[in-house]
Design a protein that fits this description.
Cytochrome p450; elongated; disordered N terminus; disordered C terminus; heme binding; monooxygenase
């Protein structure tokens, strides 16, 4: 039951944020509409949408990721340190519970240029290729990441 309910809440929040931001930024909405029309415009309205069609929606993928970065559905994640470590020169002993702010990570100006702005293009292949893979973690990260992230 937990998997089902957690997935519903986070998915509905993420979709709400995407719709809100798309409505708030008409230029983004226009680009999305052009992309959707380009992929589906010439198709029979009765045809099934396939995974291949969805893979063509590159800009939509960028918009969804940017919405998840700007307004993460899950703003925090917890972990327990499994071995003694140093963090910024301070000892953190094994067994310490830590909380990681996904919101702060996604708004870090050392990682994101203009972090408070909605800029879907920051998730283009060119801008993403040199970014640390843990800089964007809307589904958590590592062994305990969200099992539904690929859905």
């Amino acid at each position: 039951d937990t998997f089902m309910f957690e997935g519903h809440a986070t998915t509905s929040m993420a979709l709400t944020y995407v719709l809100y931001l798309t409505g708030y930024y008409p230029e983004v909405q226009r680009k999305l509409r052009q992309e959707v029309d380009g992929v589906f415009g010439g198709l029979d309205p009765e045809c099934d949408v396939t995974a291949d069609h969805l893979r063509e929606l590159k800009y939509m993928d960028m918009v969804i990721k940017e919405a998840q970065r700007l307004l993460p559905s899950v703003p925090l994640m917890g972990r327990t340190i499994d071995e003694d470590m140093l963090l910024d020169g301070k000892a953190v002993p094994k067994g310490t519970d830590v909380t990681i702010s996904i919101y702060a990570l996604h708004h870090d100006p050392n990682v994101w240029d203009k972090p408070e702005e909605f800029i879907p293009e920051r998730f283009s292949p060119e801008q993403s290729k040199n970014r640390n893979p843990f800089a964007f973690t809307p589904f958590s990260a590592g062994l305990r990441n969200c099992i539904g992230q690929k859905i």
